[in-house]
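Page header: ASSEMBLY MODEL / five components / 1815 residues total.
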Amino acid sequence: MTARKKKRRLKIPIIKRAIIHNEAPGTVTYTGKKANISTKVEIIDYNKDHYSRVDSENIEDAFGFESSKHITWININGLNNTKEIERLGEYYNLHPLIQEDIVTTNQRPKMDEYEEYLFIVFKMLHYTDEGDFINEHVSMVVGKDYVTTFQEADGDVWDGLRDRLENAKGRVRNTGADYLMFALLDAIVDNYFSVIETLSGKIEYIEDQLFEDKVEDDITQDIQVLKKEILRIRRAVVPLREVINRLEKTDTELIESRTQNYIRDLYDHIIQVSESVDIYREMIWGLMDMYMTTISNKMNEVMKVLTIMASIFIPLTFMAGIYGMNFEYIPELQYKYGYFVLWGAMILVFFGLLYYFKRKKWL
Amino acid sequence: MTARKKKRRLKIPIIKRAIIHNEAPGTVTYTGKKANISTKVEIIDYNKDHYSRVDSENIEDAFGFESSKHITWININGLNNTKEIERLGEYYNLHPLIQEDIVTTNQRPKMDEYEEYLFIVFKMLHYTDEGDFINEHVSMVVGKDYVTTFQEADGDVWDGLRDRLENAKGRVRNTGADYLMFALLDAIVDNYFSVIETLSGKIEYIEDQLFEDKVEDDITQDIQVLKKEILRIRRAVVPLREVINRLEKTDTELIESRTQNYIRDLYDHIIQVSESVDIYREMIWGLMDMYMTTISNKMNEVMKVLTIMASIFIPLTFMAGIYGMNFEYIPELQYKYGYFVLWGAMILVFFGLLYYFKRKKWL
Amino acid sequence: MTARKKKRRLKIPIIKRAIIHNEAPGTVTYTGKKANISTKVEIIDYNKDHYSRVDSENIEDAFGFESSKHITWININGLNNTKEIERLGEYYNLHPLIQEDIVTTNQRPKMDEYEEYLFIVFKMLHYTDEGDFINEHVSMVVGKDYVTTFQEADGDVWDGLRDRLENAKGRVRNTGADYLMFALLDAIVDNYFSVIETLSGKIEYIEDQLFEDKVEDDITQDIQVLKKEILRIRRAVVPLREVINRLEKTDTELIESRTQNYIRDLYDHIIQVSESVDIYREMIWGLMDMYMTTISNKMNEVMKVLTIMASIFIPLTFMAGIYGMNFEYIPELQYKYGYFVLWGAMILVFFGLLYYFKRKKWL
Amino acid sequence: MTARKKKRRLKIPIIKRAIIHNEAPGTVTYTGKKANISTKVEIIDYNKDHYSRVDSENIEDAFGFESSKHITWININGLNNTKEIERLGEYYNLHPLIQEDIVTTNQRPKMDEYEEYLFIVFKMLHYTDEGDFINEHVSMVVGKDYVTTFQEADGDVWDGLRDRLENAKGRVRNTGADYLMFALLDAIVDNYFSVIETLSGKIEYIEDQLFEDKVEDDITQDIQVLKKEILRIRRAVVPLREVINRLEKTDTELIESRTQNYIRDLYDHIIQVSESVDIYREMIWGLMDMYMTTISNKMNEVMKVLTIMASIFIPLTFMAGIYGMNFEYIPELQYKYGYFVLWGAMILVFFGLLYYFKRKKWL
Amino acid sequence: MTARKKKRRLKIPIIKRAIIHNEAPGTVTYTGKKANISTKVEIIDYNKDHYSRVDSENIEDAFGFESSKHITWININGLNNTKEIERLGEYYNLHPLIQEDIVTTNQRPKMDEYEEYLFIVFKMLHYTDEGDFINEHVSMVVGKDYVTTFQEADGDVWDGLRDRLENAKGRVRNTGADYLMFALLDAIVDNYFSVIETLSGKIEYIEDQLFEDKVEDDITQDIQVLKKEILRIRRAVVPLREVINRLEKTDTELIESRTQNYIRDLYDHIIQVSESVDIYREMIWGLMDMYMTTISNKMNEVMKVLTIMASIFIPLTFMAGIYGMNFEYIPELQYKYGYFVLWGAMILVFFGLLYYFKRKKWL
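Prediction written out in full:
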């Protein structure tokens, strides 16, 4: 049906970048940009009475905790050494597809339920101090007595949680791995609020500039960047909402019923985040309209100045032109006060036109 | 997949405000703006034959009513003294997450069902006399024989209901806590109608200004403010609609079947509110288009004036210029009536052009 | 989360109109505009062999028909005498909420099923001869052997039905109250087609004006009025569609199975109406775009005239200016035919520019 | 709630056309435009071994085939003689509502299942040679051994099918009435592809004109006509999609299971049609934007010409004006080569400005 | 209802192309553009220990593998020799509708489940080196021990898979025909990422041009081409998503449970593709807005230049005109330094206006 159309060829060059080689599914290849980071392991082992923390660069230090009677949180920073990930995956019996997803940084948020563990993928969002928007790929394996998290690089939003674990604040030390999972996700979602708040600050900054008429040339570009940021936030938030919804409803034995109340609360928060995303998205789209109106208003003002100047001085110039003519007989030229009378007429025309523009509210 | 894109950096400053610290879930921290309000307690205890009212600043006055055989409405004003809320929560056995939600002012409307009570969060909307839009966070615990409401500050929409309670008007004194809950929500939803009506008044005011051509510069800003208001109203209304829908369908023993008819009616009202919100939303978005058309129409008018003035006087000036030349031999200059003939020609051109513009309907 | 934003205050005055007092639910207060109409009662009592009609201003004439073995249609015109409505409601045992809905003119269309009757609210739409759009609130109680209808004022779309009842045309005399209900709703829906047809006439009128370039200034306002009308029609149609859908699926004993075919057909019609509403809505929104294009096209034409006039005469004026200079030595001025040569040059420039604009298709 | 708004009255005349009289449901009144067509009957009676065809203008020739052991296709052309339709309807025991739908040309596509037959309404679309879009109302009754089709006028898309029937090509002669129904619908849907293809040709024609800058004035009108055509096509396609979906899922005994595969294929085709409709719809809406951009680009070009001409010659004219002054003492006027020096200055200014505009890429 | 509208006739010619003849369903007619390609057969027969590959132009070489105990992948290139397809179809007992779908290149992606095999239709997308967008129709029959694929022409995205098959890399040699089916689809979906990446490169190229102000005239056309490409990609992706979703949920015995994990992962990928499509679609639509803003900004700049030049020199020209008049008595003309005083005044006006425009930020 579309076969018969003649093709119009784009004048833009075709850059066939991103040749994604079709590898065997389950191949563990890191696809992110943080490629030179050595893998670090952080192991927090705790229960009501016990707390220990090990920091290491040796993945094998994370082995053997499954037999401890404590809850263990194993946090891996740095995904480019895929061999290490594979060793860990083998030890903890992770499905090859999970291993692939851990290092595939463009994997969207999702949850897979396996018999012995839950596998959850999500995104950690933040702005750098330079204002760049960072979207870090994080995944999490939740087993009976352990949670393993995988991050692309150092630095995360879980310092508050680490503090609570160490100092036995809140409920977290008295509960199982399911509550730890909740607490980790809760920190992620709380952080989304911060990110959205920063974004809303940017939107208001542009709005204020538009309202106070301080707009410089590149605002379209700014708006376009905001559009992309909100779309990327949305891409992190919307699938995570589904994940948490499924977490709330799943009947896995890994999650105790008393944790369900907390997950329900978390679901509430993520819905709130996603509603905010939708609202700010609409606002960003609206900025473009506002900008267009601003441009049109400015053009209107430019046109008015031109019209007023031209409309006043063109007739006056004409009047002067009349008496610059060299006809032999122009009676007015001989009048003694001709020149002054003409000045009077010109001043009349001048104020008449001023009054006309005043009445039109152009002045 | 998006990894290879070069980043464009925004020229706008990044204000990393709103650093939301990830606290342990269930931590009771007030997040609103009304921070210096002392907590007030208002207790109305009634049944068919009995009515008493206590106003106090001591939270403990609200204890002990669970054993009364009357219906008790405990209304708390002021949420910043979180200690008081926690004491009440402890006494009435409220889940820590509920205590957190009571003081978290950006919590969206929701309902949680617990075994012994329902917990409902909603928003009370109103305009101050200065025209500021106020969005007050309110929550409600509905138990077997009592309803507890939590407001950020004094002043609410329940005076009509207090009056009916005191004077035993309407059904409310003859019914249980479930009907009281309905009556409280009904007053909230009725008030939404007022708020929307006020908003519709603003929309019409702007519309009228647009139609009567009295628009001043800052209308984009006004429209933007309206957009934000309608989005905030929507954010209060849409989740409350879900809440009431669930109230209608829940099979909790806390709500008697004869109250269901009233809740169904309430659901009807909230749907009506939310339909109005959608319609006014569309209208506000339409205002921007109307404004753009107004601007374009004005620019058209400006252009016409310029075109008419310039098109008439430029050719005339040219004609005068011709006979201002100093050629030794310009025959017309010697003609006796040359000057007057030229005037005639100029007047012809003048009226010819006027006629032309008239026919084009520019005049 | 939105708490930290500085408020921008609207410059538009806040008119806190529509202070809706929160009355006790079930309070019967007329909210419409037809406040001085005396209540009229019209009672048509019929079966296969019998037909009688009573017109009265006494509500009590409508009592006692429940025991007749005929089908009775009681039509009440005028809702402002709420006392009368309450008396009727008491006699026929109508729930207080129903009595409230009968006189609450902004109640949206809905159906409530009670044990002994169905309660249906809908809207009767029509244009007055002056072109005002009227949205009349109508409600209907359908019992075992009777149908009661409540209208705000005289005049409705049921004269065809009255005629068929009186003259025993069609099926209506041979069937029960359920078929009468269907016939009443069918007339309402048929009338929606007329209303939409009238609206489509208006749309085409504006379209034709736009196409034939006869547009006057106030077309934005016209389009805005059309927008509001279509939104109000939509508000009447969409909930009624749900009502009829539920009527089709309900398993009440009040509706016989042989009437179901007719209701299915009616559902079909209301879907057709609502599809038309959506299409015309889109068309009305499109009118604004068309108008913008028209404005832009006109501005283009204005600009072309200005550009042509200015571009031709400004260079010519310059040429004349050159030879108006008073230099002592300008050789051309002494040439005998200098003046005529210049004229030649000017005519060349004139036609050259004309040709240029012709080639650009501006002429 | 909307009651208090002051009414703005449209300046456009109200044409209360289309007064649709509310007739008794089941009344058979032809509502189309082809009112003077005599009813023609075409009867094709066939089975594996037998084929006969009768063309007649007498509706009674279509009676009596129900007892034949062949499959019978009765095709009626011309619906304005409603008496004939009623006679046929009576003979074949068609429900009054079916008879009404057969002649109600604005009935939307639908399927009604009755015990003895299926009733299907759909639209036959085509363009006349003059380019008018025709939307013909067709209905079909599918019984055990017969299919009856009702068309408004001669001429249809079934000649290929007639050919296959006569020459025993394909499966159709070996199968039952259900396959005939499928074949008839299949031809209708195949024809939709042709119609959409023609429409896409129009869209591309306008696109090409826009791209090659050959646009004349009335393109808004053309786009508006396209919008209406696509909306009418959509109105025929979308409900038919539902019909075919229901046909696929219905468990009527009238359709054999081996025909289900074919209907599933047909459903696939109609989905494809409706996807195309949505895509072309979006394209048509996009045309308007493209046109706006074209207009703006043109205005930009007009403005540039004006700006260049004016910006170059206005300063030059000023320079000439200076030396046209009559001051007694203007030293430059006495210089011998003053005139030529001024020309030099003027040429410098001229080329300087040209260079400036060149650098701005306006030339 | 729409019958009474007067028809407006398009001025554009009606090209009734694409006369699609309604052939009997199941007729095998090739509808694509690659009509002169001889059919090639590639047969890969393998199991854990065995691998053989046959390339042939004789379709019969593909027969007989059903009895082999290996998995067989039969890949057919070239669909225009429909006789060959029919022979294969007959041998493998393919339903006539399947044979039709194999060669109907505009068939949308779908899956049909038959008892002995699954039939899947999808699209292979790629850009040629010249930048043309190619949409190749591919279908696949998945039986117990074999997969047959049908392509329009040579060249596909399965070379990586062929390599893995030959060299026994990955899981594919150890698994059944269901995993082969998955691997084939996985390569298709992976390739969609490449295609989208290329498209995103084009979008960014246009964006960069817009931001760096290098836009040439034909950008509307480029955007329009992008719109069409994204719509065609969407048309390939969205129905395939449904297909894979159904594959995940189907309970056919042809797919082993251990393959389900892989298909779930594939579904995840196709969702990711379709989300990207939606995002880029929105971006492309946004480009048009950005372009409009760019045009308006340029026009603004043009207007400013004109306004500044005209506003400065028109008053100056007027001043010069005054003293070019020939009145007998103009006192200033006799002043000795009149000329220089005037120059002073002119320079004052000049800089005054410059300062004015500076303050307005036009310079």
